[in-house]
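Hi! If you just cloned this repository, the fastest way to understand the data is to look at a raw example. We've pasted two of them here, unedited. The first protein comes first, obviously.
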Amino acid sequence: MKLPQWLGQTIELEESELTKLKFDIVHKSGDNLAFCELKMNVYSRCTVGRVEFMEKFNKFTKLIIGNQSFRNCIKNFGISNIFLIGGVLFNI
């Protein structure tokens, strides 16, 4: 499900590489919105996983800065804080 629809809005965002970003977990609590990206150590190793995190978070930041419709979607739903969280899962 796309973020505007998940937030109960009917706006349509223009399709682009940035608006097609997918995160493993998206959670809303009060005026906070958290996006979490998880990497498994077995598949991505720590260095590669960190690079993948930074690339995805950089693209998300570009989306927020460059897309007024996306910012309006977030503002209209009362979101004040956005958190980008990255985690590496280890098989212990």
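Ok, and the second one:
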Amino acid sequence: MRLLFQSLLAIIVFSLAFYSCQPAVDCIGEGRDFIVVNFKSKSTGEDSLVVYDTIKAMSSDSIFYDFNDTLSTFNLPLNINATQATYLFRKAGFDTTIVVSYQVQTSIIDDLCPPDVIFFNLDTLSTSFDSLVVTDKTLFQNSNANFEIYK
């Protein structure tokens, strides 16, 4: 019995030592899968709160913001299987749209991790907003707004 206990203890200690020395896999990618849109005041350049009844992607039935959300910054998701997206902003029955184009790059960090996806070359194909500025064409975790809309 004592020999069995010593053998099990040795196996446990060896296993812990072996696995604790293995390098940890960091599966956190650098990319993000949404556009950051920031509304700004034309007169001051400061963040400006806006209210929309609905904000949605035209290619899906998902509504991202609804029921009079009041924000100055909105996150709009992108589709990894597409290269452009159209977003509808509805307020009091009036629709405003942004059509964006982008490219997608997928890379493998480690076999144990899911693919890392980077969206880049972000641009507007068309918009019905009066003033939209592209401020960052690549979507990274720590980057700022990609679009600034002045109202």
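That's it. A detail worth noticing about the second one: The beta strands are 34-40, 50-57, 63-71, 73-77, 84-91, 94-107, 116-127, 132-134, 147-150.
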